[in-house]
């Protein structure tokens, strides 16, 4: 039976253009080597199966014969190794991308995005399991995702990794050295991973897609050197330079401080893609003018976080003004609004920037961030407050800032159990899994009569509203008259 699935995988690779028909015998032999097999007989019939089914069958066979250990991490390492056999070399991929670029920028990214799915670097079948919905709020339609595409932590792998020899190669999961890396129990395999060189503001950077694709064409642009993230004039210049080259994509950066930053602050990188977030749709509620920049449209965006939007056909003017706003914000304090530039020498103010092209103008959204902590809020004053942690406790990074909640996988089962309890009238504190939601659920019971037909929709809607509150907590200036007055006070200080 294993021969049938080897043949099926070779068929798949030919059909997707990963190999040519002339490569088939070579590919079969490479797959046999990887599977620990020394003989092969072409099957009379080839299983009509999906890529997931083919890989699962081959991995199961390898486990049964002791080629690999059973476990989530070991299985992921092995099926990636199988796909790596069939993935073209980096030079071939780069050449194909550049050929498409001569046609159009969109043709190039369309081809590369499909390629990354066909190689199983982006696992379509896992991403399809993510739970997604949209919640209407006063700030627009927020995207909610319960992320199920990242593999679960395997206790056996964690234990094995603890006793394994430590290595600092690759330095992080963004480094170029990941391309083709076999991986290990504590680091994903990347034999089927390819990156595209791009020059941004005269520097060597690389373009890839996220394996988890939180939104359409979710890409990552990373520095060729392992250097820390830094928001400065150069960052604004690079963001706009990328948009100039790929005007059909937005691109943004996490902030460069802990708490308000996202993951992997140790490696300078951006995230972008082909998607319109709620924040981009949000209107400017109040126009402002910065002295000396009357030619640049500017205003406060109607959004729960504190966003200054600037627009101009001249990208250089945007960079100049963004730098001026950042410099002012870095050193700005307003005790009445609990804004402190630093405490005990620790800086607190920074910006989450997002760049895009809209019509014939370039646009920067500058989201003001502050990472101060207190005894009451040890995880951050401008961070999801404790009463919301049952839904969202993690940092509010770039993706959340723009209006997409990436919620932990635990919520899928917790919300199902909570729904059952709300319909049946069971004790909301009788289970460890849902006890954390009990206060919230009891408040919901005062507003809704739950039935089997409506409970899922109500819970999803209310989770979305919790996320809106999360964003409000993360906003340094609240959407109140007092908050807007304090926001204007800062804007007036930018000279």
Give structural notes.
- By secondary structure, this protein is of the alpha+beta class.
- The chain is built from 17 helices and 15 strands.
- It has helices spanning 2-15, 24-35, 51-64, 72-86, 90-103, 105-118, 124-127, 155-163, 233-245, 278-281, 315-330, 398-401, 410-424, 432-435, 438-445, 455-474, 481-493; strands spanning 131-137, 140-146, 196-200, 203-209, 219-223, 250-252, 269-273, 284-288, 297-301, 307-312, 342-343, 346-347, 349-358, 361-370, 404-407.
- Strand 1 (131-137) and strand 2 form a beta hairpin.
- Helix 1 (2-15) crosses helix 2.
- The model has no long low-confidence stretch (mean pLDDT 95).
Which helices and strands, and how do they pair?
Elements: H1 2-15, H2 24-35, H3 51-64, H4 72-86, H5 90-103, H6 105-118, H7 124-127, E1 131-137, E2 140-146, H8 155-163, E3 196-200, E4 203-209, E5 219-223, H9 233-245, E6 250-252, E7 269-273, H10 278-281, E8 284-288, E9 297-301, E10 307-312, H11 315-330, E11 342-343, E12 346-347, E13 349-358, E14 361-370, H12 398-401, E15 404-407, H13 410-424, H14 432-435, H15 438-445, H16 455-474, H17 481-493
Parallel strand pairs: 2-15
Antiparallel strand pairs: 1-2, 3-4, 4-5, 5-7, 6-7, 6-13, 8-9, 9-10, 10-14, 11-12, 13-14
